[in-house]
Design a protein that fits this description.
The complex is a heterodimer of chains A (100) and B (412). Chain A is mainly alpha-helical. Chain A contains five helices and no strands. In chain A, helix 1 packs across helix 5. Chain A is globular, with a radius of gyration of 13 Å. By secondary structure, chain B is of the alpha/beta class. In chain B, a hairpin with a 3-residue loop joins strand 14 and strand 15. Chain B is globular, with a radius of gyration of 20 Å. Classes of the chains: A mainly alpha (100), B alpha/beta (412). Chains A and B meet through helix 3 of A and loops of B.
């Protein structure tokens, strides 16, 4: 799970948007049993993705970035409802972190 | 308010089967569900007892991830038993979710499997920074995990009672559910208990020299309640769930009634937390009979707690003799499956209903030569066809907790 399913080249925190999307779709499928969610689908409404899933997702993002999220960063995620917003969130987190 | 309370549905997951027919087959053919303990790479190599009452058949769970994500093994058992019991009772979803039905369900200590994984994280050598406990680990391991996973899965919005009193966990669940319905607090209660495969419990009893060790090579020959060669209990796993309903509510919807709960008693020995106590047990039985408004003579059969410990069986036999005399048949159902801990009270209640319906008194398995200190009651040593109208289900727990449930056959 998490970083185990990243390829060598994906382990950089500066992944492209496409790479982040591919990685997230894999997490959604393997961890949350949600296959091919629409990028702008409301995850709670359509897939019953709840607060417990959101907390688990933040842990997956920490593993993806190989970096612990601050409490403020976690709080910023609370309004997220779509996959596209998760991708935006990860891109912003990556920019705020130095490259490995 | 003082209403009649009936059982309209039940289901059990036991070491001797998951269906009524399979369970009754084991009881009538004298087949044990005790087998060799599975290695767990933690405690088993240190434990002297090598036997366990295991659920060694596959269960076809079809729970959606939405429910699975907060469930440890014990909640799987609980939710499956609950699902089958609701179906058995024929309850409609709009009633189940109406707030008129609550849940009384517990386990000995949540999910020890999940707890072990948490401890591995804390005490292991790995960097715990990114692999700290998951958000759902507490929900899977907490002591009321069975009750609230049931409420979530079935949308139950009534009251929640989650006792966790070791061996009296699920007899208390039924008893407190009975009281909730009897006194009009709920129209129905889903009651029971579950415990998953766990060697921690075995280790505890093993250290107290209370576990069976003489029959490691022949697991089916232990436990041996009331027998001269008994050498201790055998820990088991399983789940039991019953639907309790107000009689009038059940009658109006045309429900099939399996049995009536006539009474319930629970007390404490008020002293030692481990040693069995004859006065405490005797008092529980008398309180149970009073609660049920029946005389000791009315009891046709007793499902004894009888774990096959040296002193526990003697004390229980003598307390039964003081209260019932030698009239009712006595069977120790744990002889077939070991001590299923938090689920034993519910499982033994369900088996008692099956046997009442069939008019069968099964023998205590492995009871070949009755210990003379236990001989003052009427032990069943072979399968007996005998009408059972009223049964007492007795359970006693560490902590000095005692319970007695009194059931009556439907239509009696």
């Amino acid at each position: 799970m998490g970083s185990d399913i990243l390829s060598e080249e994906e382990e950089s925190i500066h992944m492209t948007r496409s790479q982040i999307t591919t990685h997230l779709l894999r997490i959604f499928s393997e961890r949350f049993e949600i296959d091919d969610p629409g990028l702008d689908d409301d995850l709670r409404e359509v897939y019953e993705f709840d607060s417990i899933d959101a907390i688990e997702m933040l842990r997956e993002i920490e593993l993806m970035l190989d970096s612990e999220l601050t409490r403020d960063e976690k709080k910023q995620a609370m309004g997220i409802s779509t996959l596209n917003q998760i991708i935006d969130y990860i891109e912003a987190l990556a920019v705020a972190r130095p490259a490995n | 308010m003082n209403r009649r309370v009936v059982i309209t549905g039940c289901a059990a997951i036991t070491p001797i089967g998951n269906t009524r027919s399979e369970i009754v087959r084991h009881l009538t053919e004298g087949i044990s569900g005790v087998s060799a303990m599975r290695p767990d790479n933690l405690l088993t190599e240190h434990i002297h007892s090598k036997v366990f009452g295991s659920v060694d058949y596959a269960i076809d769970y079809d729970f959606k991830r939405q429910y699975r994500k907060t469930m440890g093994p014990v909640a799987y058992y609980a939710c499956q038993a609950a699902k089958e019991a609701i179906a058995d009772a024929g309850l409609e979803e709009n009633f189940v979710t109406s707030g008129r039905m609550g849940v009384a369900f517990g386990s000995t200590h949540g999910s020890p499997t999940v707890q072990r994984n948490i401890y591995r994280t804390f005490f292991g050598d790995s960097d715990a920074k990114l692999s700290s406990i998951g958000a759902v680990d507490y929900l899977k391991s907490m002591v009321h995990t069975t009750a609230v996973n049931i409420t979530k899965m079935f949308g139950i919005t009534g009251r929640v009672i989650s006792s966790s009193t070791a061996c009296t966990t699920s007899s208390q669940s039924i008893g407190y559910g009975f009281e909730a319905v009897k006194f009009g607090l709920q129209d129905a209660m889903l009651c029971g208990g579950a415990d998953e495969y766990d060697t921690t419990t075995v280790a505890v009893f093993d250290n107290l020299l209370a576990c069976s060790t003489d029959f490691n090579a022949t697991p089916h020959l232990t436990p041996r309640p009331f027998d001269v060669r008994r050498d201790g209990l055998v820990v088991g796993e399983g789940a039991g769930a019953v639907i309790l309903e107000d009689f009038e509510t059940a009658r109006k919807r045309g429900a099939r009634i399996l049995a009536e709960v006539l009474g319930f008693a629970c007390n404490n020995n008020g002293g030692d937390l481990i040693l069995p106590n004859m006065d405490g047990i005797e008092q529980t039985i008398r309180l149970g009979l009073d609660s049920a408004h029946v005389a000791a003579d009315d009891i046709d059969w007793v499902s004894a707690h009888a774990t096959a410990t040296k002193m526990g069986d003697v004390i229980e036999a003598q307390a039964m003799a003081r209260t019932y005399g030698a009239k009712p048949w006595v069977t120790a159902l744990k002889s077939y499956m070991g001590h299923t801990m938090g689920s034993c009270g519910a499982i033994e209640t369900i088996l008692s209903m099956y046997l009442m319906q069939d008019g069968l008194v099964p023998p205590t398995l492995n009871l070949e030569a009755v210990d003379k200190r236990c001989a003052m009651v009427r032990h069943a040593q072979h399968l007996i066809e005998h009408p059972i109208r009223t049964v007492a289900v007795q359970n006693f727990a560490f902590g000095g907790v005692n319970t007695c449930l009194i059931l009556r056959k439907a239509g009696s």
